Amino acid sequence: MDYGKTFILVGSKECCLCGSTENLSGEHKIKAAALREIFGRDTMVIGHFDGISEPKVAQGPKSKNLHFKSKLCRSCNSTVTQPADLAFDRFHALTLERFGVDKSWETLFPSDEFSEHSSEYLNVFRYFAKLLTCQIVDAGGPALPYLSAFATGLHDRNIIKMKIQADPSYQDFNLVSPEFGAFAGHGGLIVNHSKEGELTGFHSTLTLGPIQYIYWIEFDGSVLFELKTTAPEFYDFTQNAFANALENPMSDYQRRKLGFDTAD
Prior knowledge:
By secondary structure, this protein is of the alpha+beta class. The protein has one domain (73-257). It is built from 9 helices and 9 strands. It has helices at 32-39, 74-80, 82-99, 119-138, 145-151, 168-176, 224-230, 232-247, 252-257, and strands spanning 24-28, 44-48, 56-58, 67-73, 161-166, 184-186, 190-193, 199-208, 211-218. Strands 2, 3, 5, 6, 7, 8 and 9 form a 7-stranded mixed beta sheet that branches. Strand 7 (190-193) and strand 8 (199-208) form a beta hairpin. Helix 3 (82-99) packs across helix 4 (119-138), helix 4 (119-138) crosses helix 5 and helix 7 (224-230) crosses helix 8 (232-247). Mean pLDDT is 80; it is low at 43-52 and 57-61.
């Protein structure tokens, strides 16, 4: 994979991180271990919680509804990204532990356990880089080689941004049923634009129990020409998303559910 390009097409039979065609499988949209901890092995209602899409029923953590269509090779999905997976597990445990005491996510990064620019700190962001790569390719988009290279540990320049909040949907359900606890979801792929229609980045969310992780990337300059040349169908998808956002602007509540500041 050419890590000097902004975008590169990835086929349906290629690893979206490295381009390998060997031993491919679908990455979990939400970690199987986290799902088992939340739901056990029972049937679960899970999916997008964007105020628009209908949640899907899954029969358990191995359900196809919980896997991306985009593929990862066995090496990238296990050995290469395992440090990031494990770092996120530890970070999520820390977040759960501290969240009830102080809901300010800034108190979690940096911290003694995840000091800034340490391998543990970077590996948490590598986990979200892997998820965002899968989200983009899953939506029919190209791979972002620089993002893939960060996800697989080939460099340490983190371009993922993240914030953490109490999940609004979880809070809503909890008001209806105080005993409610089994909850997980993801926000799919959100295309971010400037007011002039310039593509500015991609955005998604991950919810585990009461906690929502919002993660995104921003482009430094214009990328529309390169995107149109590299992936014209996905370019059209991003332009349609902008047109739809103008025609059907999100309410403040929908924006909050997706992790946007309502003043943006």
